[in-house]
Fold these 4 entries.
Entry 1:
Amino acid sequence: MRYLLLIYQDEVAQSQWSGEEQAAEYQDYFAFSVESEKRGVSAGAALMPTNSATTVRVRNGKTLTTDGPFAETKEQLGGYFVLHCNDLDEAIEIAAKIPGARHGSIEIRPVMEIM
């Protein structure tokens, strides 16, 4: 089964990290990526900050756009991985190794397989 692992972190707090803290985080993500590639990661990426986001809605046939994410929250979606796992237990095991889990949270969502 495929699982989407959504990485949520406090964007403001993270922007205040020192260069050394950022470099350590990137090294940890690189190591995680190498390990998870062996386990069947099919995709993964970091996202640009929320101030670069655009939210789209269609109401009464009109397209409406808003700068920023849909909801204001303490933690923002910062990246994701799509994994092939045997079950939820394996997805949890892998999610716990994502560096962002140490100071944010990882949401695990099964991917709906259509067809």
Note: The domain at 2-110 is CATH 3.30.70.1060 (Alpha-Beta Plaits).
Entry 2:
Amino acid sequence: MIYFIIALVVLLLIIAGLYNSLIKKKNDVGKAFASVDVMLKKRYDLIPNLVETVKTYMKHEKSLLTELTDLRTKAVAGDISDDERVDIENKIAKGVSGLMVAVENYPDLKASQNFIQLQGAWNEVEEQISASRRAYNAAVTIFNNGVETFPSNMMAGMMNYKTKMLFEIPDSERKNIHAADLFNK
């Protein structure tokens, strides 16, 4: 009888440990996503300033500026899924990248102090977003391992936990950079 009670206590401790471990991992993912969210908010706050600064110089790129403004509006609406959010973020990154390339055709804009400051702020925010995404992906990987490995996968199944999606680099950013292209601008 005493062995049965000891075995039961050990089993309950193992179950409690697995449960607490999965809860901690889920909370770490939430915290990491909130960190990404804060950095993305900084990006969203910069977009109107960037658009207004370049609007006076870039008459021909009006559709790109409108698209960036529309994407920002969708992103801050708050009623989108995580997958939709990642898709919008990829489109914003592509749009701003196109905008920065278009700036090359406007020497007065490139020399504008406001634009130079905004470009510096944008680069800083992009670095912070990158770091936040790395932290998020690390937390998600740990969580996904807990959800998929034995014996915690049994507890995760009972808790209805599913694996989470990682932030990934869009295919367009995976291409190799050719140094000659950088010098031909």
Note: The two ends are 82 Å apart (CA to CA).
Entry 3:
Amino acid sequence: MMKYPELNPNENAYPNEQGAFGLTKRELFAAMAMQGLLSNPELSAEFEAYASDSVKFADALIDGLNK
């Protein structure tokens, strides 16, 4: 099995030649997790809970990818 280099969550999600602009990988993963959470109309919680859970999901994904 091929081993990939460790994922740095603070790197730019979409690097370009001009430099690092935009979302980090961690921010992108958290935004994607939040989108999934908010797409379920049966869930109801405070906005802060969605934000906190989204970051936890993003960190768990990064940890899993780095194993």
Note: Helices lie at 25-38, 47-65.
Entry 4:
Amino acid sequence: MRLSALLLSALLLVAEPAASLTDEEENTIRAIERVAPSVVFIATISITESHLLDPPRQGVGSGFVISEDGLILTNTHVVAAAEQIRLIFRDGTVAKARLVGLDQQTDIAVIRADAPREKLRPAPLGDSDAIRVGQMAIAIGNPFGLGQTASVGAITGKGRVLPISRTTLLSNVIQTDAAINLGNSGGPLVDSRGEVIGINTAIVVGANNVAFSIPINTAKDLVPQLVARGRIARPYLGVTGKVLPSQFLDLFRLPLTLGFLVEDVEKGSPAEAAGIKEGTLEVAVERERYILGGDIITEIEGIPIRSPEDYLKAISPLKVGQEITLTLFREGQNRTLRVTLAERPDRR
């Protein structure tokens, strides 16, 4: 009898169901499952200018379907130089894609999949303006080509300013601690309702889970123009440089002031036509390169330029064809110029 009781007890232990999931876990799984079928792995092949010597370059990233006719959102840096774009859907289906349009300034690109309609399940898009710091964030993508992966974290910041290049800043960026790695770029950041609130785009190298996503509302505004004309019409002055930090001014015996230091003026640009002067003296300060001797833009349309955020605030509302007023600091004196902005050239 004692042995029978032990056997019965053992059978009951084996038959006991596993611990049930919490409501929060169930909700997280539902959110992932709502978007996951829309997420694709993107593999690209790029041909270099010296293609006779260098082999084709391969790239990876992620994207997600936004329309039943095959439109897919991803990052510009994933597909910009691609000669070939291949997609792998969650169920293993392989398809080709072509570039529809891209925007370097926001790192947003649209491609179109050549895939069966039943594979094209648009992801539900949320409202990135309504997000709050502390709410759940789920990054879905294909890190390191391992296959579709979901990582769960939180929104850790909003309204961040992210440098895209030496002269371009992306505003209103979402910060998250959801794990994002190589191959996640272009994939969706999802909220607890299973709605896309961002496009994962960048990480801070060396940091522990400090990553950034482009707000989905930014993409909503740009997609119609990207589909219609392949690019975004943006105003163009034709200068490159950087905003001088305040601690920089005491390092040199030169007439300097706070503002945007003009390091280079492009040939044939509105800036050249207006007589804006570029730098001539290259120096390095704490491993940062500066070219001094050029004009310093201290105001744009009356907005003082004291930080990268000021510069972004000043240029964001400008339009193609608009005549603007610049205040320049040159050789110790202030002067005012009127410049008519052209449309930024397409250099794809």
Note: The chain has three domains: 38-119, 128-229, 235-343.
